[in-house]
Automatic annotation (TrEMBL):
InterPro entries: COR413 (IPR008892)
GO cellular component, one term: membrane
Species the sequence originates in: Erythroxylum novogranatense
PANTHER family: COLD-REGULATED 413 PLASMA MEMBRANE PROTEIN 1-RELATED, COLD-REGULATED 413 PLASMA MEMBRANE PROTEIN 2
Subcellular location: Membrane
Mode of membrane association: Multi-pass membrane protein
Chief localization: membrane
Transmembrane is among the record's keywords: yes
The name this protein goes by in its record: Uncharacterized protein
Family membership noted in the UniProt record: Belongs to the Cold-regulated 413 protein family.
TM annotation in the entry: 43-64, 71-92, 98-113, 120-138, 144-160, 180-201
Length: 202
């Protein structure tokens, strides 16, 4: 009995040491990234770069395996997150003629060939439709203001909280095989809104 509890304590300590070491590496990398972003092109470049990082992380979570992600967390919240965090270059491409053609094809496939329309395309098609049909109030005013940044931050906080709860606790979110990749993806969702809010405050 005593040997078993000693082994459990030892494995718990090893897990805590690994998490502590990973956290130190993460903070060091974040500081290095911020310094390099400022050196390369100032705060504007840093914001655009972090927008790309956050958008790619959200897309990664969106296409993640259904059994690991979609059953536990409201994946639909990633759609408004991507809408508000997508860099202007990509957003304008999808809002133009390219996005209209993609939306038209998606609607035609969904209406007339529903059996050939795969389930995994539902969310990306909804994102393209949202970008194409969003009024200028949302596409320009809210998206480029602190309100859009705050919405992204709230979504990231909610997804992290739901992920930790679905994983069975903070430790499991960082130690389970699939939990680590999900957690890293969700943590990356914080980089753009946190940076942008700091810039708005400054």
């Amino acid at each position: 009995m005593g040997k078993k509890s000693y082994l459990e304590m030892r494995s718990d300590q090893e897990a805590l040491n690994l998490i502590s070491s990973d956290w130190k590496d993460f903070t060091f990398a974040a500081r290095k990234l911020a310094n390099h972003a400022i050196k390369l092109g100032g705060l504007g470049f840093g914001t655009t770069f972090l927008q790309w990082v956050a958008a790619v992380a959200a897309i990664y979570l969106l296409i993640l395996d259904k059994t690991n992600w979609r059953t536990n967390i409201l994946t639909g919240l990633l759609i408004p997150y991507i809408f508000f965090s997508l860099p202007s270059l990509a957003f304008n491409v999808f809002r133009g003629e390219v996005g209209k053609w993609i939306a038209l094809i998606a609607v035609v496939l969904r209406l007339f060939f529903p059996r050939r329309f795969p389930d995994w395309l539902e969310m990306p098609a909804a994102l393209i439709l949202l970008i194409v049909v969003a009024p200028a109030l949302f596409a320009s005013t809210v998206r480029n203001s602190w309100i859009g940044v705050a919405i992204c931050l709230v979504i990231a906080c909610y997804l992290l909280q739901e992920h930790i709860r679905a994983s069975g606790g903070f430790r499991n979110a960082f130690t389970k095989a699939h939990g680590v990749s999900n957690t890293v993806g969700i943590v990356l969702l914080f980089v753009y809104p946190a940076w942008a809010l700091v810039l708005y405050i400054l």
